[in-house]
Amino acid sequence: MDVDLFIKKMPQVVKELISREAFDNRRSVNQEAIALLEEALVHRVGSAGQRRKQIEAVLEGYAGSRSASSSVA
Asked: pTM higher than 0.85 for the full model?
């Protein structure tokens, strides 16, 4: 379900940038703001997902090296 979102006290320069992007992309300012938020969230979630995978790989490597060294001892 779609819901309303109101942004208060947005810096004028940000509004102008969104307006310019909206014009270039043939969207309304609202549509452009939604598209920009979606892009930012996808990027953030993707970055967090990649970082999480890197951390898990390091931890798995560490756990593997500990079990290999403890079985040698």
From this structure: no
